[in-house]
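Weekly puzzle thread! Below is a chain. First person to post its structure in token form gets bragging rights.
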Amino acid sequence: LFGGRGRISNTIVGALIMGVLFNGLVMLNVPAPVQQMAIGVIIIAAVWLDGMLRRRR
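Winning reply:
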């Protein structure tokens, strides 16, 4: 988002975490709109956390 450097390993870990989260929500029979909100909240939280960590450096 901020033009920083990315690593393929971080991308793979993020995709695996999102996949596990999505599969877990499906297995728990969580309705689709709630699944989408949960994924959105996770993405927003990750972006916020990344921004906070970048400010500390």
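Puzzle host: Confirmed. Bonus trivia for everyone else. The radius of gyration is 14 Å.
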